Amino acid sequence: MLTNLFRIISPRLTFALIFIFCASSIGYAFYSQIYNGAQPCPLCIAQRIIYGFLGLLSLIALINNCKGFGNRIYGILLLAIALFGVKTAYHHVWLQSLPPDQWPASCGMPLDILFKKIPLSGFINTILSGTAECAMVNWKVFGFSGPLLSMWGYVLVAVGAFYVLIQRRPKQRLY
User: Fold this and answer.
1) Read out DSSP for the chain?
2) Is the pLDDT of residue 161 over 90?
3) 175, 169, 137: which is closest to 72 by C-alpha?
4) Rounded to whole angstroms, how far apart are CA atoms 124 and 127?
5) Which tens digit of pLDDT belongs to each residue from 58-113?
6) Which of 50, 56, 101, 148 fits as disulfide partner to 85, beta carbons 3.0 to 4.6 Å?
7) For residue range 11-56, what is the model confidence (pLDDT) as tens digits?
């Protein structure tokens, strides 16, 4: 039964599902920000950007419709970005598990001003290391924090990318 499932789900369908998942995740994040008033912290913004890269890459793979080696390249890139997303979201979940006295110091500046004041490498390091804003649980979805659901979303995308890497199609004979 499982082998029939592997025959039905093609790499192209997998790329389409990854794109739909990433687009809906970003869409819900913007909905939550605009209508629910959940202000994103720097790590939340970084996770949105990672979902954007994943969605864009899967859309390119979907449109390109490669076979064999091309799918493997797209699968490797998606897997690498998804694992980086898992690492970023796990760091965010870890920050939220700390007691308030161990929260990192806040930079005190909004991101647009911080971007203008320090070099790009320092800006990216500040974003990915998190601030005190990142340690607060501002909003929950179904009782889970946003970063925790984001982490599991990245794991789901990584599983899809891994499926593209291991999936074998039967070779067709050209007569």
Assistant:
1) -HHHHHHHS-HHHHHHHHHHHHHHHHHHHHHHHHHS-----HHHHHHHHHHHHHHHHHHHHHHH---THHHHHHHHHHHHHHHHHHHHHHHHHHHHHS-GGGPPPP--S-HHHHHHHS-HHHHHHHHHH--HHHHS---EETTEEHHHHHHHHHHHHHHHHHHHHH--PPPPP--
2) yes
3) 169
4) 5
5) 999 999 988 888 889 999 999 999 999 999 999 888 888 877 776 666 655 666 66
6) 50
7) 889 999 999 999 999 999 899 889 888 888 888 888 999 999 999 9
- Partnered with residue 144 across adjacent β-strands are 141
CB 126 within 8 A of CB 33: no
List C-alpha distances in Å: 132 to 20, 44, 108, 119, 147. Answer: 32, 13, 10, 21, 15
Task: Give residue-wise pLDDT tens across range 103-145.
Answer: 666 655 666 666 666 776 766 666 666 666 776 777 777 888 8
